[in-house]
Each structure stands twice: as C-alpha cells, then as structure tokens.
Amino acid sequence: MHKDGRAVVLETSGVPFYGPDGRLDGYRGIDRDVTRRKKAEKEKAAMTEQLTQTEKLASIGQLAAGVAHEINNPLGFVRSNLNTLSEYLDVFKDLLALHGELSNAYEKGEFEEIVEFREAIEKLKKEVDLEFTVNDAGQILIDTNEGVSRISSIVKGLKDLSHAGVGDLVSHDLNNCLKDALKIGWHEVKNKAAVELDLCDSLSVRCRPQQLTQVFLNVIVNASQAVQENARINILSVKVNGQAFIEISDNGPGMSEEVRKRIFDPFFSTKPVGKGTGLGLSIAYNIIKEHGGTIEVDSRPGLGAKFRIKLPLANEAASAA
Question: Does this model's pTM top 0.70?
Fold first, then answer.
C-alpha cells in the first residue's frame, strides 16, 4: 500500500547477508513499483482476447451463408422424410382400422363381412406394397436421425467456436478439433478441394478446444481459398517425440519469401480489401504460443503451403507443470 493510499504492485529482488559468526543477519534488496507495467500487461491481455473474439465472430460471419446451406441440406430431407412418414402413418391407420373391423366381424360371426374386410386388407396391402412401406419407414427413421445429428454437430461446432475461450485448460483430443473445424468450414472447402484426412487414433493435449478449433478453421479455410484446379488439402495428425504434430498442406500457388515471413504479422493479408481482417493467422500464432506450442509455414511459389503445428501432449504438459 502506497503512503497516499493507492494499492501498488511491487517486484522485489534481494540477497541475504551474514554476520562474522556466519549467522543470517538479514536481506539487502530493492523494491520496484511495477504497478503500471502490470496494468499495461492486463490491458494487453484483455485487448488480445477481444481481438481473438472479434476475429472468431468475423470468421463465423464470413462462413454464415455456407453454414446455413450445410444446415438446410439435411433439414430439407428431414422435412421430406417426415412428410413421407406422415403418408405411411395414414396407411398404417387404415390397415389398423380394417383389422379392427375384421376382429369385430369374427366376434359377431358375420361371415360375409369377414370375407369383405379380408379382401379389403389384402387389396390395400398390394396397393401400398406393405413390405416396402414398412422397410422404407425404418430406413427413413435412420436417415432422419442422421440428418438431425448432422445439424446438431454443426450447431454445436458453431456454439463451441463462438465461446469466448477463457477458463482452465482441459484434456481434449486434437483430432476432434480438426473434425469440428472441417464441419464448420465444409461448405467453403467441399467445392474447391478434395480433402484427405490421415489422423492418428488419439491426440490428447491440455488446451482450450474452441481456440484450437479456431486455429485449424483459419488454416483450412485459407488453404481452400488459395488452391486452384485439381486442388487437394491434406490434414495429418501424429505423435512425435512427446508432441502432437499437425500438418495442414495444400497444392495451391504457394507464397513468396516476403509473404511467408509476414504471414503471422497482425493485419497482414494478401486478400482484397474487405475480404479479410488480416488477424486470423496472427491470432492463430498467439493461441498456439499460449498453449506452449509452435506454428510455422513452409511454402515456395508453385509448391503449395504446409502449416505445421506442434503442441505438448497432455501427459507431457502435466509433467512440465
């Protein structure tokens, strides 16, 4: 506490000193007032977090039309399937009604009605191809469930991505982050490049999953925007020397040495004005650094680009802590 009543942050450094008899007499040290520095660091951290969130929301905004399309596709066949199931339900109701009438005729011993209802049931079964209808209804339910799951996974991915990303680190499989990023950016990618996934069984790291999903989404979408004809994007994940290793490569036009050196600089972009914030890869760099990892790019003109990301595995990170 300062004499004027202000709370201050002090940084102290000192050394012990001893008397002639070798006993500890005290410490000599220097106190430095680092209140302003700590305040500046706190403000910088808050600004970085705000920029990260802004870039994240900008990415979602740019992908919004594509994401809407990806949701509308399964939503369309879910709606169609429900209409078909409604028609099948009417058939089943008619059959149940006829069987009810047939049961009543048996109870009353009305033989002419029994014959009439049995013939009506057989006629309806042939008209609707009952065996096909029953089998198709089962398949429609399976397809509808898959469509709903697809919509749910896209919405969950967007929800996770848009989260502010603060809080404690958790153990999470990086492969799931890669898959989530691909789901969210799929509409941007699918018509531009063939994607090949080569993922190891499990790649658990201590991380904030939504932040790493954002990193992978930025790199994947950038790759899809860079490639041209006969385009390929390869995504690899392996364990190497106690680290998680991710490589996202493309066969696009590549980068000049000047661009490659500046690719992680804030506000640097090769896109036309208004097509990007120039923050995506800079924020990706900071996120990976905060997770104790590295991100680098290997690229030359005409030879595509390879983004390589290394992060400590969960057990290695825990040992280091």
Answer: no
